[in-house]
């Protein structure tokens, strides 16, 4: 039998998307071919402790049990269970996982890992920075304004006037740095604007105000390093006013249309923009790029990128690849190969620079 690759799955984590990560990791785990991979399951608690568990399918009791480690002792052993693996696969959504922090730990350790590096991950998590960069690359983003908490506290009335002059109702207010629709408000009446900003500032000191787009929501999966490829686009049909937290994780009534019903030219445009966004943001491995297609103008806007998109069996990222001819097990094979490839090319550069 050929030698197996030891893959460490990192899941759970300190963000609000802890539970989604468990479901994503379970799906990745089930799709790792046991003839090729040996899996090391590293569960990160909500408090940030690391534990070696049997698999992402471990019971809640097993996850809760045991002491765990505060930080990675790369060379030591934790009660006989080493944390060493050939490659690390962060299946962590949101802050402390998708935002470059875990990628920094893995860079420091000098080990290969799946997905975007520190810069791409950090950019992907920060909506204000990613939109600024996409815009400067000439890519279409929804008109927006960034409001810092300090300036908001100094002159609320002045800022509200500015926002109202710049944006027609309804507009959106969102924290720059979160996911899962947490802290996002669709403002339909003037009198609700101040409360919407206050809500967003509970989660971040940087907030985005955006033109509200009436239209369709499209998503496209990207895979690759230097020569990324895009999947067929899919469409998401929120069951509520917008695709909010309960729609994503509680009601589960969101409709997915895969592939999206679109004319061929539009499909090509979505795929071209998805790859361009991936490149502009220094991404690697994988990303899901989300779009709005405006009803009245027919214009396509890039809404956001997710560098560790949902990975459950019913998530858009793997389903769009399946619809494009790449099934889940082959997809994880590719992601792991891309992680090794990126590590090799980076190591050469690092050594040259020494
Ligand atoms: N500018 C906007 N116009 C219309 N709908 C929006 C806008 N911004 C956000 N939404 C709605 O809110 C949802 C969540 O916003 P998004 O920016 O994708 O944040 P998250 O990172 O939490 O997914 C979107 O899927 C969409 O339904
Ligand atoms: Mg989103």
Order of helices and strands: EHEEHEHHHEHHEEHEEEEHEHEEHH
Q: Residue-averaged pLDDT, rounded?
A: 91
Query: How is the biggest beta sheet arranged?
Result: 6 strands, antiparallel
Q: Count the helices. How many?
A: 12
Percentage of helical residues? Answer: 25-40%
Radius of gyration: 21 Å
Q: Could you tell me the number of beta strands?
A: 14
Low-confidence stretches: none
Task: Give a brief description.
This protein has 354 residues and is α+β, with helices and mostly antiparallel strands. The protein contains 12 helices and 14 strands. The chain is globular.
Can you tell me about this structure?
This protein is α+β, with helices and mostly antiparallel strands. The chain is built from 12 helices and 14 strands. Strand 13 and strand 14 form a beta hairpin. The longest helix has 26 residues, at 328-353. The structure holds adenosine-5'-diphosphate and magnesium ion (MG). Magnesium ion (MG) binds next to loops.
Helices and strands, with pairings:
Elements (H helix, E strand, L loop, with lengths): L4 E8 L5 H13 L6 E8 L5 E4 L6 H5 L22 E4 L10 H9 L8 H8 L1 H10 L7 E5 H6 L1 H11 L4 E5 L9 E3 L5 H9 L4 E6 L3 E10 L4 E2 L3 E4 L7 H7 L3 E3 L6 H17 L4 E10 L5 E7 L9 H8 L4 H26 L1
Parallel strand pairs: 1-2, 1-4
Antiparallel strand pairs: 2-3, 5-8, 6-7, 6-8, 9-10, 9-11, 9-13, 11-12, 13-14
The protein binds adenosine-5'-diphosphate and magnesium ion (MG).
Quickly list its features.
four-stranded mixed beta sheet, 22% strand, 12 helices, 354 residues, 36% helix, binds adenosine-5'-diphosphate
């Amino acid at each position: 039998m050929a030698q197996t690759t030891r893959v460490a799955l990192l899941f759970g984590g300190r963000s609000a998307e802890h539970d989604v990560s468990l479901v994503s990791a379970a799906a990745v785990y089930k799709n790792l071919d046991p003839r090729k991979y040996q899996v090391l399951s590293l569960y990160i608690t909500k408090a940030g402790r690391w534990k070696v568990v049997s698999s992402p399918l471990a019971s809640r009791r097993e996850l809760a049990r045991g002491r765990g480690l505060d930080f990675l002792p790369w060379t030591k052993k934790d009660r006989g269970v080493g944390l060493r693996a050939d490659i690390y696969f962060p299946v962590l959504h949101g802050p402390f996982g998708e935002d470059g922090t875990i990628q920094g730990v893995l860079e420091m350790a000098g080990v290969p890992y799946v997905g975007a590096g520190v810069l791409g991950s950090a950019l992907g998590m920060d909506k204000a920075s990613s939109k600024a960069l996409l815009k400067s690359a000439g890519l279409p983003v929804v008109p927006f304004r960034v409001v810092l908490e300090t300036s908001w506290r100094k002159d609320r009335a002045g800022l509200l006037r500015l926002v109202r002059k710049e944006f027609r109702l309804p507009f959106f207010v969102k924290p720059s740095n979160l996911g899962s629709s947490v802290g996002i408000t669709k403002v339909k009446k003037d009198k609700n604007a101040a409360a919407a900003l206050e809500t967003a500032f509970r989660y971040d000191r940087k907030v985005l105000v955006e033109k509200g787009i009436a239209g369709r929501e499209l998503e496209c999966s990207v895979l690759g390093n230097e020569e990324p490829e895009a999947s067929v686009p899919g469409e998401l049909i929120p069951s509520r006013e917008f695709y909010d937290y309960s729609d994503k994780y509680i009601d589960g009534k969101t409709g997915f249309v895969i592939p999206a019903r679109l004319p061929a030219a539009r499909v090509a445009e979505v795929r071209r923009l998805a790859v361009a966004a991936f490149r502009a943001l220094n991404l690697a491995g994988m990303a899901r790029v989300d779009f709005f297609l405006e009803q009245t103008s027919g214009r396509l806007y890039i809404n956001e990128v997710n560098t560790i998109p949902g990975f459950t069996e019913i998530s858009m990222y793997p389903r769009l690849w399946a619809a494009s001819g790449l099934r889940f097990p082959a997809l994880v094979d590719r992601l792991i190969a891309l992680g090794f490839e990126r590590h090799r090319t980076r190591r050469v550069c690092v050594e040259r620079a020494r």
